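Session log. Operator J.P. requested a structure for one protein chain; no other inputs attached. Running the standard single-chain path with token output.
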Amino acid sequence: MDRKFNNWFTKNTKNKGNYVSENNDFRQQLWNSLKCDELKKRNFETLSYSPNSLQMAFEKYNSCQNSESISYNPNEKIDFNLNIRPRLSTSSLRLENPSSSLFSTLEFEKGKSSVQFGIGLEAEFVLNFVKNKWSILVEPTYQTSRSEQRAEDVTFVTGGSIDQVLENHSIENFVGLRHYFFKTKNLKFFANVAYVFVIGLNSNINFYRADGSVLNDLQVDSGNNFSLGVGAKLADKLSVEARYQTERELLRNQPAWKSKFQSYLIVFGYSLF
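Structure written below.
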């Protein structure tokens, strides 16, 4: 509802005979002020002084003026959207162990990371009292990733090379905020930030000799991190988002090791309701 009209009112008044009469001057006031092609005089002749009836008149006027309507109804605080969110990801890993004479001297090639699949379910709580531009996100996601790196010319290991392989499976729980901007009728862009709580699922980092035998194996105990994303949503149904997840520690249970794991994702979305 346009703010400049929010003080108009109608009253039931008593005349000298103590009869109650109704003041409907607000209809003429609205007709004089709300001039647009979508509103005709007949629309005001039977207009009742009720929230729903007045809201429809103001919304028609704002639509005619290409102006956004703002609802001040205190009973409508939050909208809820449930979105299914499949995703593709790629990741990188860096490991160090200064205390080991073997692993502290290894230099791995740039890692290979195949494209991996994940899927999430996003609950979005839209805050209507800030023009529907902010929302709270809760998104549990199953994510899997694999990356490989090789160190060549390792003279003190049979076969002369070591392969480092990460198999990472986890439930990543995103809790964050989204902001919509550049909104049109059918298209809107957004940016979001989230804190990611990670639950590991039988993940490990293995080191293999050239013949495939295991040189060392480490159980993954992942830390948490942050996620940053930008994207677009079409017709409130389909969405796509580019997302970057900051570095996180994978070996909290291995104090001698230092690890840096980060990932990049393309996240698709479909709104169930």
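Operator note: Residues 3-64 form one domain.
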